[in-house]
Amino acid sequence: MTLRIVEWSTGTVGRHAIAGIDAHPDLELVGVWVSDPAKVGRDAGDLADLGRELGVAATNDREALFALKPDAIVHTAMTDDRIMEAIDDLVSFLEAGINVVSSGPVVLQFPMGVIPDPMVERVVTAGKSGGASLHVNGIDPGFANDVLPLAMTSLSQRIDEVRCQEIADYSTYYQPVVMKQIFGFGQPMDSTPMLLNPGVLSLAWGSVVRQLAAGLGVTLDEPLVERVERVVAEQGYSTVSVEIPAGTMAALRFEVVGQVGGVDRIVLEHYTRTHPDQRPDWPKPAKGDGCYRIAITGEPAMEVEFTHHGENGDHNVSGMIVTAQRLVNAVGAVVAAEPGLVTALDLPLVSGRGLVSGG
After folding, report:
1. Is the same domain home to 153 and 130?
2. Which residue, 91, 208, 250, 279, has fewest beta-carbon neighbours within 10 Å?
3. Residue 356 covered by a domain
4. Which pLDDT belongs to residue 359?
C-alpha cells in the first residue's frame, strides 16, 4: 500500500527528505509546508533542486494540508531554538490523526527521565486520542548512538562501557543559529552559549544515554554527568556559518555521562572542530572529515567507525541526507506502530527496502 506523505519544512534536511520520499516506491508526496512566504506556490521538485517538477505546490496553510488526510508527516523543521512550539506542532499533528516522523525536538527521541512526565504524557495522550504515532530520530541523536551501539552490544559477553562519539569538522556546516547562538562558536570565551548552560547538554543528549541504559537494562546514577572543554581561536578565520575572530571560541569537546555506582558506563562524547588543523591531539576520523565512532569496552572489546559522504558534497551535506533518510525509511514502521510515542526500542528493523538501484 502506498502511503501519502506531507513534508513539513524544506530547509537543510527537508529538501533531502523530499528527494527521499520521491525515490521511495511505497511513498507518495501529496503536500509540502513552508514557513517562508517566498516559497509558497513553488513546486516541491524545485525546492529540493531535483531539476524537475513533482506537481506538488508548497503552502503555509496548515489546515489545507490536514484536509489532505495524509498517512504521515515527515517533520524536519528547525526545532533547536523553539522546542515548546515544535512540541505544540507535533501534538496538533497527532490529534489530527496523522502519524509523524520528526528530526526534532531531540528530547523526544527518548524523553523519559529527560523532561517532566506531564510533557511526555501530553504527547502520548495526543497520539492515543488521534490514533497516530510519533517517532523522533536522526543520526545524532539517533541511529549512530542508539540503533548502532545497541546492535553491537548483541555481540557482547560483558559490557564495561559504551562510548558513542561524534568526531567532526563543522567548518562547512551551514546552520548559523546552531553554530553561533547554540554552540557559541565565534563568541567570547567568557560568554556562556545556550548549549553550555548547566543541564542543557543532558537535555539535548541525555535521551541518548537514557535510551541506551533502557535498552541494556541499566539503572543510572542521577543526575547525568556533564564534562566540557572549550578551545580558543589562536587566529581569526571564516566558516560557512560564522566568523571566528581570534580569541573567541573555536572548538568544543563535551561528554554526557551515565554512571553506575560512580563509574562511567554509558558516554556520549563530541569532538567538534571548526578548522581541520585544530587540536591534533583529539581523535580524528580514519577516513574523511567526520565520523561516528562506537567503542565498547568489555569482553570482547569492539569498535565501529561509521562515516558517510555524498556524491555532490562533503560529510555535512551527506549528514543531512542520512538524517532525512532514517526518517523517510521509518515511515512504514511508524504508521504500523501502536498509537503514541515510538522510540528506537519499539521499532522493528528499518531498512532501505525498495531502494536498490535496478531492483
Report:
1. no
2. 279
3. no
4. 67
